[in-house]
Amino acid sequence: MSEHSEIQPDEPIEGPVAGDAAPDEPTEEELRRRDAALAEVVVFGNPVLRSKASEVREFGAELRHEADHMIEIMRDAMGVGLAATQLGALRRLLVFQAGPDATPTALANPVIEWSSGELATAAEGCLSLPRVVVDVERPLHVRVTGADIRGKPILIEASGLEARVLQHEIDHLDGVLILDRTERDQRKGAMRALREGTSFTPFEPDTEDDQEPEPAHEAG
User: Fold this and answer.
1) What value, to the nearest 5°, has the Cα angle with vertex 12 and ends 179 and 200?
2) CB under 8 Å to 1, separation ≥6 — which residues?
3) Parallel, antiparallel, or unpaired: how do β-strands 153-159 and 129-139 relate?
4) Which residues of the chain register pLDDT less than 70?
5) 3-state secondary structure at position 189
6) Catalytic (active site) residue 169
7) Are 27 and 64 in contact (CB under 8 A)?
8) N or C: which end of the chain has fewer CB within 10 A?
9) In the beta sheet, which residues pair with residue 139?
10) Within 10 A of 51 (CB to CB), how many other CB atoms are there?
11) Active-site pick, 3, 29, 169, 218
12) What is this structure's pTM?
């Protein structure tokens, strides 16, 4: 039987990088850059988010440029991970930075070789699902293989937030969203918020009893 851990106090995936202290209020320039970065991210409703990405076969200057651009978008958007499909490119490439002091890493053709039986539930957000956060249960530890942007094999033993970020981004490459991995009531609330352009978090109770959306309780 798998073990289960309590909800982890990490920031939502693809949201702000968690730190020891509360982050400073973003400057006007940081907000401008964030808006510009988010304008490049594909959002819910675009079929590319439901498409499976193809294996990266060519490693060279073009891939390095794409990875650098993805890292720039991830950082400007104040995120901790980004998949190529979120920028409309159907190739198996992701970038992540699971912590303010971590080195941004690009990973091509990632494969989860092993995942632990110990599970943890945590709140996850997504740059492609604006103003939506849902609880997602995932393995607490994973072993991921892939290649760097030069094509050199990589093995990553990840735990905690890093493991969660990797699983989240690999899901994107398979056309899977956090909506598919949360419980039914949260999925219904999140879908309603996406339709109405409002917000949803697990702390906002969903009292919908039928198929018709209720008026939003909080604007996004």
Assistant:
1) 55
2) none
3) unpaired
4) 1-23, 204-220
5) helix
6) yes
7) no
8) N
9) 119
10) 14
11) 169
12) 0.84
